[in-house]
């Protein structure tokens, strides 16, 4: 089946031949290798509480090698960066809807979070040293990374609330104190670098320049004994090993002198700016992967309906079932159009100019896909909540995306305030309408 059938017609002429070919390759790679690879990945994961965080399933590297052979590598890094393969955000968005169908596909193609966002930060703001030491190795899939921003008891969707501190001591070194949690990727034994959002200033006049992003060697930090990986946090009971979402405590961790020159990403006080630039494209990536989740769920439910009898009649002939199925297809297409429109606007301008489009996609997509997953689970009955289908795990992952990168409420509030500024135009419109009506009556 050609991917052209899945691409809204309005966007077809905006794709390069190479982009369209790669989208097709993504679909075939996921269907032929990654979805079966998900089963092997689960089988190869150790059930030992300790070994789960030390051993990487062998299927992961095999799939990474295959992806590189096919040229499916780092597609997320858009044409704006010389380190990337040169695709647009729109083209990658269409690839991501297939990658999202599989648990292992993002890592297999080196397009997995949080590495994608971290690599984009390094590509845009990194020094030559940081690019050589961290970005090159991340792009090669040699290491992994973690992003440490969220804090317990803090509304972390507003970066200004981040309280983990990095203060300069008498020796001119940063001393870090604070607790981070839900640091995705921090549990992986291959994770070599942390990007840490810290408060480096206490200015009351310029709140937007109080924070900085520090680049820390994860191994050195842990070996110091003053940066402790406390525990992996679970998401609806899933630990997501060996990747993990971890709680990390800094207790007077002093950055070694030989790292001071290269610890800051961009410069001190740029943290808020960096966070905003990181989250825009990342939200689009998450949303397009969710489209893949929704499509996979409907595929699984259709297979179930084809093979399940209800009171002597196949489920796939039940009117209530097929009507619900059709409505879910409509809902997915609405989200797809929202996301692709946002991705295209980023391509032709920048993430900041597409802020409202990104917000709409980020609000609507997770909650729509969750409804579809919930319905799919219901169609499977008890099996739907068990490990014998992917739906329960997909629901757990997807539910977090109504919180990650800003909860619904934050985006809705921002979007509502933006739209409220336009209320005055309603009065102007109707005043003009009344004037036109009077003029028309005089004709």
TrEMBL record:
Residues 146-252 form the Acyl-CoA oxidase/dehydrogenase middle domain. Residues 269-418 form the Acyl-CoA dehydrogenase/oxidase C-terminal domain. Gene3D superfamilies: Acyl-CoA dehydrogenase/oxidase, N-terminal domain (1.10.540.10), Butyryl-CoA Dehydrogenase, subunit A, domain 2 (2.40.110.10), Butyryl-CoA Dehydrogenase, subunit A, domain 3 (1.20.140.10). Its cofactor is FAD. One of its GO terms (molecular function) is flavin adenine dinucleotide binding. Residues 57-142 form the Acyl-CoA dehydrogenase/oxidase N-terminal domain. It comes from the Eukaryota. Keywords: FAD, Flavoprotein, Oxidoreductase. One of its GO terms (cellular component) is cytoplasm. GO terms for biological process: fatty acid beta-oxidation using acyl-CoA dehydrogenase. Homodimer. Belongs to the acyl-CoA dehydrogenase family. This is DEHA2B06424p. It comes from Debaryomyces hansenii (strain ATCC 36239 / CBS 767 / BCRC 21394 / JCM 1990 / NBRC 0083 / IGC 2968) (Yeast). The lineage of its organism: Eukaryota, Fungi, Dikarya, Ascomycota, Saccharomycotina.
């Amino acid at each position: 089946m050609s991917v052209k059938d899945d691409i809204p017609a309005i966007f077809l002429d905006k794709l390069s031949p190479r982009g369209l070919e790669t989208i097709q390759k993504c679909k075939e790679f996921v269907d032929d290798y990654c979805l079966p690879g998900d089963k092997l990945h689960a089988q190869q994961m150790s059930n030992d509480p300790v070994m789960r965080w030390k051993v990487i399933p062998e299927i992961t590297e095999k799939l990474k090698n295959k992806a590189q052979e096919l040229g499916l590598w780092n597609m997320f890094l858009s044409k704006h960066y010389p380190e990337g393969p040169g695709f647009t955000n729109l083209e990658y968005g269409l690839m991501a809807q297939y990658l999202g169908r599989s648990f292992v596909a993002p890592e297999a193609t080196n397009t997995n979070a949080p590495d994608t966002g971290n690599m984009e930060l390094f590509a845009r703001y990194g020094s030559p040293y940081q690019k050589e030491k961290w970005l090159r190795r991340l792009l090669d899939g040699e290491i992994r990374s973690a992003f440490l921003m969220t804090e317990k008891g803090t509304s972390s969707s507003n970066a200004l609330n981040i309280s983990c501190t990095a203060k300069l001591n008498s020796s001119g070194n940063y001393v870090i104190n604070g607790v981070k949690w839900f640091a995705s990727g921090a549990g992986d034994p291959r994770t070599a670098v942390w990007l840490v959002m810290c408060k480096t200033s206490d200015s009351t006049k310029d709140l937007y320049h109080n924070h900085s992003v520090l680049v820390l060697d994860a191994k050195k930090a842990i070996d110091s004994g003053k940066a402790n990986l406390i525990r992996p946090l679970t998401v609806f009971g899933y630990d997501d090993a060996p990747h993990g979402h971890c709680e990390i405590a800094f207790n007077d961790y002093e950055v070694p002198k030989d790292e001071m020159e290269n610890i800051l990403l961009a410069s001190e006080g740029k943290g808020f700016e960096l966070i905003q630039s990181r989250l825009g494209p990342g939200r689009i990536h998450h949303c397009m992967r969710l489209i893949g989740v929704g499509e996979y769920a409907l595929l699984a439910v259709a297979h179930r309906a084809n093979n399940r009898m209800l009171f002597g009649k196949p489920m796939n002939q039940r009117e209530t079932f097929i009507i619900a199925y059709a409505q879910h297809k409509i809902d997915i297409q609405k989200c797809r159009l929202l996301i692709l429109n946002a991705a295209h606007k980023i391509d032709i301008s920048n993430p900041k100019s597409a802020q409202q489009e990104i917000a709409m996609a980020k609000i609507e997509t997770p909650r729509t896909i969750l409804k579809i997953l919930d319905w799919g689970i219901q169609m499977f009955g008890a099996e739907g909540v068990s490990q014998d289908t992917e739906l329960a795990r997909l629901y757990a992952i997807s539910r977090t995306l109504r919180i990650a990168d800003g909860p619904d409420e934050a985006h809705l509030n921002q979007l509502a305030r933006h739209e409220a500024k336009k209320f005055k135009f309603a009065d102007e419109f109707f005043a003009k309408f009344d004037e036109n009506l009077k003029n028309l009556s005089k004709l």
